[in-house]
Structure formats: C-alpha cells, structure tokens
Amino acid sequence: MDDFNFYSKEEIKELLKNDRLVYADDGINEVVIRYKDIPDFIVDYNNKNGLTDLKFYAFDGYTMNPVITTFGYFLNQCDLKVREDIIDRLVDLQSGGKIKNYKIIDEFDLEEVRNELNLKI
C-alpha cells in the first residue's frame, strides 16, 4: 500500500461528516475509500498490483455482503444502484481514461479518529 496517498486524521474527520465511504478489500489489505472514487481505485489498484480481485462493502457495517466484487478491472457482481453510479467512469478508465488523484483511508487511522470522536459504526 506504499504506492497510495493517504488521508490525514484531520481529513478523515471531515470525510466522516461529508462523504459516503466504502471498505475495499483485496483479501489481505483493507482500506476505506470515498464511494465516488471506486472506479479510479479499481483501475489504479489493478495497475499497481496486477490483476486483483477486490470486494467492496458498505461502510455502515450492517452487512457482510459485498456491494461490488471485481475480477481484475472488471465488475463481477455489483449492486444495481452502485453499477449505475460507477459504470460510465469505470468504462472510461478501462478505455484509457486518466485516473484522477484520490486518497485512501488507513483503517488504523480511521479507528483512532472514530474513537476520538466517539463514533460507532
């Protein structure tokens, strides 16, 4: 995960207030990203790590059913609403579009911020 930019703890506080977040899991590492960064993360992660199957989970933590699973760059299973939200951007990136700058949230930093703010999710 050294090839990625991470949010600071102060930035994480703002994200918790203002952004929709999702967990991204590659089977070994788990991070949190903004919902709107899913397509960029899928393509960038696969560019940096080789073809990797990813699973994305709702940040609310109420279910362990993934909202997206991927097969490398491509969607394997995807919630219909999520697919509608991301498909245009994902296809653009798969066709050579430029990956935007984005950051990810380290799970340990997130936990520290949540504890500091007394948030339970």
Note the main attributes of this structure.
globular; 6 strands; single chain; 121 residues; six-stranded antiparallel sheet; alpha+beta
Rg, alpha carbons: 14 Å
Distance between the termini: 24 Å
For the report, how would you describe the main beta sheet? 6 strands, antiparallel
Any low-confidence stretches, pLDDT <50, length ≥5?
Answer: none
Order of helical and strand elements: HEEHEEEHEH
Number of domains: 1
User: Biggest sheet, strands in spatial order?
Assistant: 5-4-3-1-2-6
Average pLDDT taken over every residue: 92
Helix content: 25-40%
How many distinct beta strands? 6
Shape: globular
Decide which structural class fits the backbone: alpha+beta
> Strand share of the residues?
15-25%
* Number of H/I helices: 4
Question: What features would you describe in this structure?
Answer:
With 121 residues, the protein is α+β, with helices and mostly antiparallel strands. The chain has one domain (9-112). It is 40% helix and 21% strand. It has 4 helices and 6 strands; from the N terminus they run αββαβββαβα. It has helices spanning 9-18, 38-49, 80-94, 107-117, and strands at residues 21-25, 30-34, 55-58, 68-71, 74-78, 105-106. Strands 5-4-3-1-2-6 form a 6-stranded antiparallel β-sheet. α1 (9-18) packs across α4 (107-117) and α2 (38-49) crosses α3 (80-94). The longest helix has 15 residues, at 80-94. It is globular, with a radius of gyration of 14 Å. The two termini are 24 Å apart.
